[in-house]
Amino acid sequence: MNPDPKLESLREPMQVTPRFRTAIETRIMQLERDAARDEHMLQFLTSPDHRRRQQMLIDKQLEKAFRLREMLALVTTRAAHARREPVR
After folding, report:
1. CA-CA-CA-CA torsion for 16, 23, 66, 13, nearest 10 degrees?
2. pTM for this structure?
3. Phi/psi of residue 77, each to 5°?
4. E strand or H helix that includes residue 33
5. 61: how many CB neighbours lie within 10 A of its CB?
6. Facing residues of 16 across strands?
7. What are phi and psi of 17, to 5 degrees?
8. What's CA 30's distance to the chain center, in Å?
């Protein structure tokens, strides 16, 4: 039985540009900073429903940051000035 070529390609490390990696790292920091700020605001909310929704927002922000960190752990960064091969 031949291995599925789509699954085989997933095993190869994906490369991203330094600029893309920096953009993702910036987004992760923003999500974590926003979650910390929103968590601080929880103490000032009096409505149980508002507190619940605020906590859901915090959880989603942290979950997104975690997923992005996992993605970055699976990719490698291309050299900044890598030569591109000509298209044939």
Report:
1. 0
2. 0.74
3. -100, 130
4. helix 18-41
5. 20
6. 77
7. -80, 155
8. 11
Q: Are 86 and 38 in contact (CB under 8 A)?
A: no
| Residue 23 one-letter amino acid | A
Least Cα distance to 56 among 35, 37, 70, 40 occurs for 35
Q: pLDDT category, 87, cuts 50, 70, 90?
A: low
Q: Which amino acid is at 69?
A: R
Q: What is the pLDDT of residues 13-70, one digit of tens each?
A: 788 999 999 999 999 999 999 999 999 999 999 999 999 999 999 999 999 999 999 9
Q: Fill in the amino acid letter for 61.
A: Q
Distance CA 73, CA 68 (A): 9
Sequence-separated (6 or more) residues with CB below 8 Å from residue 58: 35, 38, 39, 42
- Token look-up 């990719």 returns 75
Cα gap 76→12, rounded to integer Å: 10
